[in-house]
Structures are given as structure tokens and as C-alpha cells.
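Appendix B. Chain record.
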Amino acid sequence: MMKDRWLCSVLLPLALIFALAPSAIALDGSQLAGTVSDASSGERLARVRIRIDGTSRETVTNDRGEFTFDDVAPGEHTLIAETVGYRLDREQVLVSTRQTTTVAIALTGDTVRLSEDVTVKADPFVSVVPGSPSQIRIGAAEIRNLSSVLLDDPMRSMSTLPGVTSPDDFHAEFSVRGAPFARIGVYLDDVPLRAPTHSFAGLGDGYSISALNDQLLGGMTLMSAAPPPAFGGTIGASMAADTRDGSRDKTSFHASVGVSDVNVVGEGPLTTDKRGSWFVAARRSHLAYVTRQLGGNGSESVTFQDVQGKTTYDVTPQHTLSLHVLAGTNSYESGAQDTPSTADVPAAKRFGPNPVFGSTGSTDLVKANWRYTPASTIVLSTTAVYQHTQDEADSQTNVALASSQYSDAGGQANLTWAWRSGSPLRVGFAAHRSSENGTSYLSLLEDPIWRAANAYQGTAHSLNAYAEQEWESLAGRLRLTGGLRWQRNSRIDEQPILPFASAMFQLTRQSKIEFGWGHYAQFPEIDMIELARANAPLSPQTSTHYVAAFERRLGPQTRLRVEAYAREDRNVLDAPDLYPRLQAGGVTWPTSVPRWTNAYDGYSRGVEVILQRRSASKLTGWVGYTLGFNRARDLATGAWFDSDTDIRHALNLYGSYRLTPSVNLSARFNYASGSPVPGYFSVSDFTTGDSTVVDARNASRMPSYQRLDQRLNKSFVHDRWKMTLYAEALNATNDRNLRYMGVGGNLQDQAWPRFGSMAPLLPSVGISVDF
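C-alpha cells predicted for this chain:
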């Protein structure tokens, strides 16, 4: 008995110790804690799911981007971090016994270069373009959300920015504060682009889509007023897009499929020592669903495809070479046929006087850059570029209605020298040789017998140079920038010298004021020069910009900005005889081929209010309201009229919020009061198109435009790959918006404007896979 009691007293505690040993080892006080940040901005990320690979344990970061795991077994573990809008991240962590192990995780956005470094930016609204007094930037994630699942077009993302309007769902072009797209400079890595969109020649009722792939872009910056001299060359506004490099850390692939296109992207290190990277992106459209929903017939075909790639290599720490190549094609086939409902309608009223039944085009770009940094205060960037575009519009009988072939070869060099702290000097020089030939699109509104008179062919050599000097006070409260730009075109006599000045004064830590002023000039295109009026050589279009802004910070991530602007335009180019009009009591069509001339002076004046918040974790977006007045004066008659792009009221809203680690909701809303109907028409009924020809320019206005788009992103994460489902409702409220489609008539005594409906409610879905 005594022996049994002794055995029980010894063996029972031993059994309990061995039974509880695993728990005792696990509960040794080892802890794993960390933070999750955005790799681009350094902002802490909330609602990120963190899980320990091989276990069922997971948690979600709090509002400060922090997470903690208690009672973690010592040893090596793999942490998997994921949230919608960011790439899947895997981190190897070694947990020490009875200690707290900490880890910092940097997540990279889905459309941002993969990086292991975190860049901490104290100011989410820091100016990207130095010296620009009026600018707003959207990053890669915003471009992706605003590009639309349906069309996957980064250029369309610009139309949601304050002061920007684009009341035509079919086209990627936009206007800024009354300046049409033809007067807006588009730059890619500081290089001006001739053709930033895939468009269809002569197709006023057709389509266009950006030639830029949103997967390749790092960001886009709009300079609505008084852009600095480096971004001169046009008289309206400027938009600068910058491409990102491929990842130097690891190879990755992305593939997405939507109802309108397929997009495949690959990137990775060029060498094992991480001195270079490569990036390739290819798209191909399948727009049948879109064209059918937009009112096209079943046989209508709209296609485009493009491929672009970029390589970057550090030859030495001071020398970096990069090569960017883009090649794309597009085509359109109407397939329009008479139906019982249209058989009795005159062809001119259905399709216009010269209907386009087919259109083809191509865009090519080769851009090579050498970046040299001989010292920390000096950066020299030299770029050689070649651009080529061609397009042709054909009739139902395959007769060429309009065509164009354009090529440009050039080079530019830009130098930044920080010769004094806070006072960088920026200088640049560019030279281009351009050639163009074809038949002007103006022929589409004329009698076919005039078409031969609209053939043109010519070349031009252009030069430009600029210098900008920036100065900042020691306290950093005052920043001044002054500069000059010089432009020359071999086909134009004038060689304008264009001054520029801007100033920023920090009133308090939360508020500042900015001012800007500058002169700008834009030379006519080659086709305009060749098709100008006889004995009336063209002069460059010119403008003077004024802008004053007050900005108040409402928190570290929120700002309120009020901006007043004025633009005075001179010698604006147009072909004023293009439109039929009322003369001597009858409708008169052009009696000769319309020719280009410096036709108008004008102005654009207004005020813009922006409330904006930038956050990687919570609500991000903006509300922008613009009140504008855009008027023009006919230099021949002295008559004033509202310009074609005069929109008095514009409201632009965008918001995005990450609801859970796997769900993100975003929405955009655009409202624009009606713009004038171009030409000499008084429209009594936009539903039926009833109108009369009058003797006053732009006498009627289109109905107002409004559109709400909603988008939901849902991610599904696996151990080594991630899938994201996109669901979108374009024009979610199914508003009926109209667009102007040109002029119809019998080319004798009848004429009318043509209108069509824009996008109805269009649901769409897409899916992407990253691995």
C-alpha cells in the first residue's frame, strides 16, 4: 500500500508535467508585433490582414497600422500580409524565446513598382512639378480606380479632376477650364506626345482610347493654369504622366480580363545585382459588348491592341540608361445597314454628308534616355525620341475620306543644378523635325469634289529652350520661381520669348497662398499651315495666364483650396467657314474649301474650390466645383460668343474607401452644365433634333451632363498568388446624356446638327491575377 501511494505521489505530478509541457513551451511569453505601411508614402495601413503561414492564426491591423500575436512558438515563421489594392507580401521572421520580435512590413500598390524600401512623405500634397502654382496629381492606385473596368483607360481618369470636363463618353480627350484638348500639352516623362490616344480618323461619332497603359504609369499631374516653362508649348494647360520602372527585387506577372480588353504585364530585375529592371505590358480589346450597349449595330467592330516595354540599367552609380517602346494599332468598321426604321431617313441625316464606314490607324513611340548625375547637386537628362502615327477614314466604297501620316524625330536635354540650397536652376533645350501628309478631316463636312483641295504635305523644324530659377527663403516660408521660354518654328516668322513667374508664401503652418503668371505660345500644326488662307500666313496662338490660390490644411491629410484663374487667348486658330449658316434669309454652305486662319481672341475666367483628402487606409478622394466663363470674339466681325467648350458649372467628385482587408468601394460623379452646340443652330427639341439655322454662333446649348460610376474591388488571396474581382456600374443612375456628332444636310439649302446618346447604364466585371 505504501509503495502504491509513493508511486502515485511521484508519477502523477510527472504525468501532469509531461501533459502540460507543450502548453508551457508555447506559453513562454514570446510575442510577435509589427507595423504595416504604404511603400510609396510611408503612411500606416489599417485593415490589413496578417496571418502566420501554416497555422490558423490571423489578425487585422488597427487604425495605426499595428498588429500583435501573443504566445508565438519560438523559431522561424512566415507572415503573409494582404489587403485589397496592394500586392501580396510574405515576410520571414525569426521569433526569439520569451522576447517581443518586431517587424516592419511595406506593402506595394497593385500598380506600383515592387520595392523593399519605404519612402516617408510628411506632406501628401507636396508639389510634384517644381514652380507650378496650380497642380493636382493622381497616383497609380487612383488611376487604376478611375480608368474604368469597362475601358481600362488612364486618360479618362483625368476627367474626374477638378476643372476638367469630358462630356463625351466615347472619347478619351478632355478640356481644362475651357481649353479644348488640342490646346493641352500631354507629356510622357517630360517628352511631349503627338498622339496620346488611339483615335479613328474623321469619326466624329466614333471612339478614342488612351495609348498609355495604366499598369506602366506611376502618376499623372495636371497643371491647369500657368505651367512652368518646361511644360510650355501649348496655350491651355499641361498634363505630365510619368512611367515607373520594373521591379529590381523579384519577377512578377499580372493578367487581367474585362468585358472590353485583356491586359498582360510582366516585370522583374534585369540582372542579379539589381542594377536594372524590365517591364512589358500588352493589351488587346474586344469591344463588341461596349459598342452594342452604346447603340451600335451587331456588325460594328472597334478594336485596338498595343504593346509597350521599358528597360532601365545603371551602367555606373552616375549613369543610368532607359529605353521605352510603344507600338499600337486600331481599326473601326461600321457595318451600318438600312433597317425598316431608317430606310426612309436621308443618308446625310443618318450618317452625315460623307459617312465613315471604316477607319484604321497606328501609333509608334521609341524613347531612349541617359541620366547622368556627376554630383549630388547636378542631374543631366538627355532623351532621343521618335514618334509616328498614321490613320485613314474610308467610305462605304473604300474611298479615302481623310488620312494622315505624321512622323517626328527629336532630342532634348534637361539640366538641374542645385547651386545653392533651396535654389535649383533648371534649363532645357529641344529640337524636332516633323513631317506630315494626308487629306484634312475638314473634307468630311464638304462636297466630295473639294476633297482633292484638302490634300497637304509639309515639314517643319522646331526649337525651344527654357530656363527656370527657383529661390527659397531660409525659413522655407517664401518660394519664388522665375523663368523664360523661347520657341521657334521654321514655318512661322515669329519667335516668341515667353516669361513666367510664380510665388508661394506660407502664411501659417496650416495655410499658404500661391500666385502664378506666364505667357504661352502654340504653333499651328503642319496641316493648318499647308491649308491656310491664301496670302494670310498663320501666326502662333498665344495666351497669358493668371492664377491666385489660397490653401488651408484641415488636418495632416485634408486640404481646402480656392483658386481664381484667368486666361487671355489671342489669335486662336480655326476654320470659321466650316459651318453652314443663315445668310440673306437662306441656308448657305461653304462656297469654297474652308481654310485655317487666326480667327478668334477670347478669355477664360473663373473660380475653383477643392476639398481633398489623401489616405492609404481610410477615405481618399476629392470634391471640386468650378464656375467658369469662356468667351470668344470673331476677329473678322467683332461678334462675341460663348466658346465651344464653355461650361459654366462643373462638379467633380471621387471617393474610395477600403471597407475590409478584401473589399474596396469607390465612386465618381461628374456634372457639367450644357456646352454650346457648335455652329449656327437654334435647337428647339433635342429629343427629335428639330433645329433651324441662324446667323449667330453657338446660339443653343446642349442639355447638362451627369454620370455616376460605382466600383467594387474584391480580393481573394492564396499563399503565393492573388486574384481580384472588379465589378462596376458605369452611369449607375442611367442618366440620358447627349453628345454632338457633327453636321448633316443636303449640302445645298438644308443643314442640321446631329446628336446621339452616350453611355446608358453599363454593368461590367473584370478579373486580375497577380503572381
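Further analysis of this model is presented in Appendix C.
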